[in-house]
Structures are given as C-alpha cells and as structure tokens.
Amino acid sequence: MTLGIDIEQFVTDPYGTGIQRVLHQLALNWPADVPASFVVPFQGGFGLLTPEEATGLLALPFAPRDPETDLRDRVNAYLAETVTVRVQLGDLLAVHDGWLLPEVSYLPSVLQRLEIFERCMPTAMIGYDALPMTQPANYRFVPGTASWVSEYFRHLTRVDSVICISDYAADEITGRLRRDLRKTTIVAHPGGDHIAVRAPKVREEGAPVRFLRLGTLEARKQPVEILAGFRQAIAQGANAELVFIGKPSASDQAINDTIAAAIDEGLPVTWITHADDALVYDELHRADVFLSIGIEGYGIPVLEAIRLGTPVIYDGIQPAGEIMESRGARRLATSTADEMARAFALVSAMDLAQELAPESIPTWREFTAAVAHSLSR
C-alpha cells in the first residue's frame, strides 16, 4: 500500500505547536517498509514529498529564525526548492492506495478531498481530541467556519481507522462523537525522545522554587486558577516564582489581563509570549517543577520536562501525566485555590527529582509504526 499523507493544513497555516511536533516526528520516523508521500498544495495542483523532504519542511517551525521572518514565506520557499513531483487530484487517486489526515483541519479543500478518498480507498485520521466540541469556550472560530469544524469531527466517526493519541481521546471520539465501535480505533502515544536527556538542575540553597507552566493561555488549562493558588502560596510565605510560557489567549482576554496585572503588581511572575525550542527547553531545564493542570488531549510537554530533568506536578485530565505517574510525574489536587496553594507548598518541600525516569517515556518510533500500519490491520 502506498499511503498519501495530507499536510495541506500545515502548508496553509504553519505553526510550531504540539500537532506540528507530531507531524515532524511522523515524517522523521516514517518506516521504510510503508511507501508514503506527503501531499502538499503546489502551483495549482499537488506536490509529493518523500518522508525525508517532508521532515525538512515540518522542521521549519522548530528551527531558530528571525521573529520578523514570516514562517509561511519560509515554507513556500522550501517547497519551491524541493518539490519535483507535481500532480493533479486524479493522479493522487491513481498513485495512492490509502489516505491519512494526520492533523486537525477545518479547510474545505482538505475535508472535501478526504470525502472523495473515503469512497474509493481505506482512510485514516490521527485523533487528537474532541475538545472543540466538548470545551467550545476555549476556541474561537472564524465566522462562517462552524460547519467545517463539525465536518472535521464527522469524518473522525466515518474513516476506516483512527489512531488516538490517548485513551481519553479514544473515549471522547467513540463516546461523545459516537464513532462506530466496529471500526478500527487504536491508541498510540506520541513520544518525547526528540529531546536528549539532561540531568536535573541543582538548586542553590535558599533560591526560590521555580514553577513553569507551558502552553497557550486557554481556560481549560487553568492559568488563572494556577495564578490564584500561587498568589495565596506567596501570601503564606512560600519562596517561589512562577513562569508562564505561551501565547496570549485568543478566546478570553480576561486571562491575559489577569496575568499581566499580577506582573504589574509585583508578584514573582514572568510571562514569556514568544519562545523557540531552544529557549523553551532551557527554561524547562532551569525550572524546578513543571505544572500541567487542567484538560489536555495528551501533553507532550510533560514528557519533554521529564527528559530535561524537571519533575512534573499534574491534575485534571492529563494523559501523559498519568502515563508517567511515579516516573517523574505526580498528581496533586489543585481544584481549588486552597488546594493549589498547598500543592505549591508541598512541592517546595519534596524531592521529586528522585522519581525521574526519562528513558521510560513513549517513543516516536513506536507511535509512527502504529500510525503507518493502522490501515493494514
């Protein structure tokens, strides 16, 4: 089987978030025994990239770059230099025996193409979560696109195979979206071994405990609740500092205003809104504790923190945290400000680094093998 892997969404709107991390590692670790082409829009038709060529493309968001340089320009320049095989839609049908949509996309062109392929060959999708359906307050969609959002999730119920990134995602897709249980639905955990293992940092005696929270400031990730618990802990005498790394919330300006106000007030809070991989990893290693609170479809940063020698405190729906429980991650109750404050105080007195097991995290090779062979089950 020659598999077509549709990455038009990335080319149209490139970012460097968790889904793009999955795409990059998918291309980098693609098994040689499964012929595949990564399909991109190109010059009115489609370009076919080898896994090696796609790896270079999908690495662009994670490479150091001038912040003034538009990522789309770099993507288009890469395609202009790299694409040598250009085809039309009919050719895609002729040269592929299966079709995979590996990313979330609400583009009509992507979803209409998937519907065509569903009629004539095996199809598969990677299932990340159903959060836009179950947690709509965290998402702001462009007016007029709501029907395509719904269409994307309908396809998750229709394709032949869905590879879910966690048991939570599988439960949401089969339970809330009502995917037919007779269809193939498997779970494969994304990896964290794209990061080299680092030794835990040695904190200077008397230095504040540095807590780090990474990711966009969405309400489901409870940044305001984390801040409220931290404020209470500081008032009770905790020697700590809190770092947020992530873009401002696009759905709730009050979240952004609350964090900015805490910084202006003089609380020991830092907010880094733009950071490339190198800075993120240095900050993760520099931290004493990584916080993963709220609702996550998976949580790759949990694995990254453990690889970098930083223990994790988690609560809520945190699949990666649960996988790494007692191997670098520890669940502590944080549902109220009082519980959150106690968690800050408890962690300050605990030596969680002794539990770190960075070699035990899921690997990208295992994840990619499960995706690549999903349609042959």
Question: Helices and strands in order, then pairings?
Answer:
Blueprint: E1 3-6, H1 8-12, H2 18-28, E2 36-42, E3 45-49, H3 51-58, H4 71-82, E4 86-87, H5 89-95, E5 98-101, H6 108-118, E6 123-127, H7 131-134, H8 146-158, E7 161-164, H9 167-176, E8 184-187, E9 209-214, H10 223-235, E10 240-245, H11 253-265, E11 269-272, H12 277-286, E12 289-295, H13 300-307, E13 312-317, H14 319-323, E14 329-331, H15 337-348, H16 364-372
Parallel strand pairs: 1-2, 1-5, 5-6, 6-7, 7-8, 9-10, 9-12, 10-11, 12-13, 13-14
Antiparallel strand pairs: 2-3, 3-4
Structure characterization notes:
The protein has 377 residues and is an alpha/beta fold. The chain folds into 2 domains: 3-191 and 364-376, Rossmann fold (3-Layer(aba) Sandwich); 209-360, 3-Layer(aba) Sandwich (Rossmann fold), CATH 3.40.50. The protein is 40% helix and 18% strand. It is built from 16 helices and 14 strands. The chain has an 8-stranded mixed sheet, sandwiched between helices. β5, α6 (108-118) and β6 (123-127) form a beta-alpha-beta unit. α2 (18-28) packs antiparallel against α3 (51-58) and α10 packs across α15. It is globular and about 70 Å long. The mean pLDDT is 92.
